[in-house]
UniProtKB/TrEMBL annotation:
Full protein name: 2-oxoglutarate ferredoxin oxidoreductase subunit beta
InterPro entries tied to this protein: 2-oxoacid:Fd_oxidoreductase, OFOB, PFO_beta_C, THDP-binding, TPP_enzyme_TPP-bd
MF annotations from Gene Ontology: iron-sulfur cluster binding; metal ion binding; oxidoreductase activity, acting on the aldehyde or oxo group of donors, iron-sulfur protein as acceptor; thiamine pyrophosphate binding
Location of the Pyruvate ferredoxin oxidoreductase beta subunit C-terminal domain: 199-263
Species in which this protein is naturally found: Paenibacillus radicis (ex Gao et al. 2016)
Keywords of this entry: Iron, Iron-sulfur, Magnesium, Metal-binding, Oxidoreductase, Thiamine pyrophosphate
Amino acid sequence: MATFKEFRNNVKPNWCPGCGDFSIQAAIQRAAANVGLEPEQLAVISGIGCSGRISGYINAYGLHGIHGRALPIAQGVKLANRELTVIASGGDGDGFAIGMGHTVHAIRRNLNITYIVMDNQIYGLTKGQTSPRSAEGFKTKSTPEGSIESTLSPLEIAMSAGATFVAQSFSSDLKQLTNLIEEGIKHEGFSLINVFSPCVTFNKINTYDWFKENIVNLEQFPEYDPSNRMAAMNKIMETEGMLTGLIYQNKQRKSYEDLITGFQPESLSKQDLTLSEADFNKL
Ligand code: SF4
Ligand code: MG
């Protein structure tokens, strides 16, 4: 069985020292090892942004896609080979701005993939512009007088789009984050894990200390029932989206792959999925 170190390749991450994304990479590697995967059973598909580099740093199948398009690619990978464990990842700009149309429909489609958003509430790669996750009044070079747009709530959007697994974590809480990624991988459907991941270079407001002061860990509420959709929505709104832990899980709804006609393993032979050389030459 592969250890978490075997999910690391020899490419040195070029994230800034202190970036939250390092811990997210470590958590993905640990979770993959803990659920018993081998590197060849995992595909990590990413979008564009600092976060998007992650697919190049993990020893597994990987594809660094185009901006906002990690999810269409990840869904295609999963449909082409449902034996693979597929993780899609990207930043808040990637998934909740240009890619938001894909995010909402991937959530309601409910393929069995895990989507990890590295949410630093800013655009990091392009040197610090306001993102849909930035707070109202947030000042950057793109909003020098402060953002006048409301802050997008990915958790509320996921819930209203019919998500079957919604979780949130903080890059500094490696234990919780690893555990949530494990649960997300094991979940039979689409799992959204939004992770607060501080951008130490450009976001001087939402710092590690700021998150520590503002996060509400669901462990404080032992009576909380993540299968209760209404309770989940209420808790998200009560905490203004700052809660961490497993917020909602619906284990009843089947995944897309399990429902789609003609796509059951018994109706597909290896031959169905393999293009012959003669067919390829006709394309
Ligand atoms: Fe991380 Fe921000 Fe540096 Fe990008 S710019 S690597 S998000 S700290
Ligand atoms: Mg970002």
